[in-house]
Every structure is written in C-alpha cells, then in structure tokens.
Amino acid sequence: MEENIENIRKTLKKYSQEHLLNGYEKLDEAKQKQLVEQIEGIDFELINSLYNNTKKEFEKTDSSITPIEYLDKEKLNGYYKEYQTVGEKAIRAGKLAAVTMAGGQGTRLGHKGPKGTFDIGLETHKSLFELLSDSLKEQGKKYGVTIPWFIMTSEENNDDTVEFFAKHRFFGYEKDKNIFFFKQGELPMVDTEGRILIGENGLIKEAADGHGGIYEALVKNGMTKKMRELGVEWIFIGGVDNCLVKMVDPILMGIAIEKNVTAAGKSVVKANPQEKVGVFCKKNGKPSVIEYTEIPKEMAEAKDERGELIYGESHILCNLFNIDAVERMGKKPLPYHSAFKKATYIDKDGNKVEPDGPNAYKFEAFLFDAFGELDDMAILRVKREEEFAPVKNAAGVDSPETARELYRKFYQL
Questions:
Q1: Does residue 25 lie within any of the structural domains?
Q2: Which listed residue, of 2, 48, 298, 315, carries a Cα 20 to 30 Å from 111's Cα?
Q3: pLDDT tens across 91-139, in order?
C-alpha cells in the first residue's frame, strides 16, 4: 500500500494536486482505500483540459444550421394507422425497453432525497417514480408484455432510490428480472485554480457527468448486454421529472422502423421565440439540438409561409434509439460542458469551507451532443399538454403546480 501511495504522490505532484492526500492519515482504512481508488481512476489530463476550457470565451462555431424535418402527430392522417400497426407489433414482440434518467436530487423543489421520490401533490400522493411506473404497467398490460425498466441513478442517490423501490415492492416489478438500476458516471469538481476539491467526507468531491453520460453508463454497466438478452432492439430514454412522459409510443416506434432511422425524438412547439429551450435542427447536415444561448434572435423569430417558427421544435428529452446506436455512442466520449456551482469543501488545512456563491466547476455531457453521430433522426411533434409536464422549479413555470394541473387534465381527475 505504501509503495502505491508513493506512486500516487508522484502523479499528484506532476499535476499540482498534492493536496488530495492531505487528510489521508485521518481517514479510516475503508475510506483510505476508497480515496486511493478515486485518485487512480482520475484522468488528470482530461481534468486539466476541461479546466483550461473554462477560461476560454465561448466560441461560436461555423456550423451550417438548417431546419430539421418533422412529422406532426396530429396530422399523420392515413399514415397514423400504418405507423401504429408497425410500432405495436414491435412492442408486443418485446423489442422495447424504457430508461429513466433519475440521478438528480430534489433540492430545487425543497425535497430531501432523490427527485423521483418527490410527491407532486396529487390526492393519491404518488411519487414521480410511481406515476411513471403506472404508465409503464398500463401500456405493458395493453400490449401483453412487461416493458423492462432501467433506471439510471447516481452515486449520490443510488442507495436511497433502490431502498425507496424496495419499500414499495418495486411497484410490481421484479428486481434484476425486469427492473434494473445502474449508476451514471462522475467527474471531480475543481476550484477556480484548477484544484480538485475534497468533500466533507474526506473523499474527492465528484458530480454526475450529465444526461450525456447515459450512453456510456448503459454500456459500461452491462445494461445493453442485459437488454439484448431480453430481446430488446429499441430503447426509449426520458427524464424522471416529466410526469406525462410516454415511454411506450407505437407511433414513434413505427416511424423509426418505417423510416429506417436509428433514432427518433419528440418535440413540442416553442411557447414563444424567446422560450429558453434547445431546439432540434441540423448542423452540417446532421441531426442536432441548438441551445437557446446559441441561436441568434433573427433565427429564433424566423417563420415559414404558414406562420410557424422555422426553429420551433423544442427538445423535451424524450428520445428513442436503436440499441446498436446506443452501443456505438457509448464507446465514444462526448464533449463536456462546464457549469459554475456552489460547493462546500475541505481546504488544504483541513477546514470546512462553505462559500456564499459559486466557487467550483462541474463538468457534464449533453445527451444531444451524440446526435451528430447519427445519419438521420425522425422528429415527431406532439402536444405539450399531452406529453410534457416537467417538475423542475419549486414555483412558477414547470413546477409541481403546473405539472399537477396538466396531469389532472390529461387523466381527467
């Protein structure tokens, strides 16, 4: 162990991260082992590169941005039945799995615990997890199958999530048979000088690597292998905070199969040109999503001959992928984006520091950054009031109140 520590010290000195072992002697044996494993798992060159990128000004790329074609679910006319038939056949054959990204905490909602355990205030007091489970089971019953459910947690909330499901008898699912839990990746947080932070527990302070880590997490944790064993060919990926998410949609699936594409996404029309959402588009001829911070005002407001926004298809984190595409994207790292956050940490002298404002960078990948790996992608426009009721803020827009109202209206409660 001592020889190992000496080698680690040399590595840390090379990258000016010697402080990571300052509190090593004070840790118990189990935590010492954990800290060593954390350090050995760090790609210091990557962390240096990500930190250096935070000092660069945002550079607008020279990408050619063009509109993306889409189908409106309400205007499929004669094709509706055709897509439905194809999609239903695949679902009945057990070719669909559902993935829920649930690595976050309910902090912004004033909730202590995993976000999926949050009660949005319905009379039933059902959690987000249970609302999603109800929908999945109802669809499974309709098509005579059990839709396998894969839930991506994080290091921070995995134990609490699994415990919550166990307490509720997995809502009728069977653990490791048709419901599976796996953790997303994490990356160390760094301060404004590029030093990796140590948390209050004496270990390296890490943060989840964003929803873009979903592909790598599915592959690395053996989930796509498990899916193949179950006969799955298509994977729906959505977030835990949309209580109206339709994870089982024969129309979306039928379109993907009929159009012979490896991915399909759902969109809703932007509420207004200035709505702070990413929108589907094509970059250099490949499917993509352009963030609201990147789209020029004139482009955001541009309309077609029908008076509709040319760039108006909001990405709502509801995507369907062929399993081959997920495995391909899971083997190639995505670019990371930095976010400046407030983080409590232990300084080099062993003192706990609670900052008043943002003091550290976390790095995360975005799911849609992988779309450029696809040759094409089908986009299906759906109604916001039928499929998109996110719970992100404690009050106001996209809050428990707005989600409750949409949920009640849709289910006529």
A1: no
A2: 315
A3: 999 999 999 999 999 989 999 999 999 999 999 999 999 999 999 999 9
Domain assignment present for residue 21? The answer is no
User: How many Å apart are CA 179 and CA 181, to the nearest integer?
Assistant: 7
Nearest to 405 by CA among 390, 392, 393: 390
Residue found by looking up tokens 């760094």 in the block? 190
What pTM did the predictor assign?
0.91
pLDDT at 317 over 90: yes
DSSP 336: P
Q: Is the model's pLDDT at 178 over the cut of 80?
A: yes
Element (H, E) at 183: strand 179-183
CATH code (residue 163): 3.90.550.10
Domains contained in the chain, number: 1
On the question of pLDDT at 247 being above 60, the answer is yes
Is 189 in contact with 196 (CB distance < 8 Å)? yes
Apex CA 341: angle with CA 336 and CA 345, to 5°?
Answer: 110
Flag whether pLDDT at 2 surpasses 90: no
- For 147-164, the pLDDT digits (tens) are 999 999 999 999 999 999
pLDDT of residue 62: 62
| Structure-block tokens of residue 34 | 């954990």
Domain that holds residue 324: 42-411
Count the Cβ atoms, other than its own, within 10 Å of residue 25. Answer: 7
Angle between helices 78-92 and 250-258 (to 10 degrees): 100
Structure tokens at 139: 């669809």
d(CA 117, CA 126): 9
Sign of CA dihedral 343, 346, 352, 355: negative
The amino acid sitting at 108 is R
Residues pairing with 100 in the sheet: 151, 238
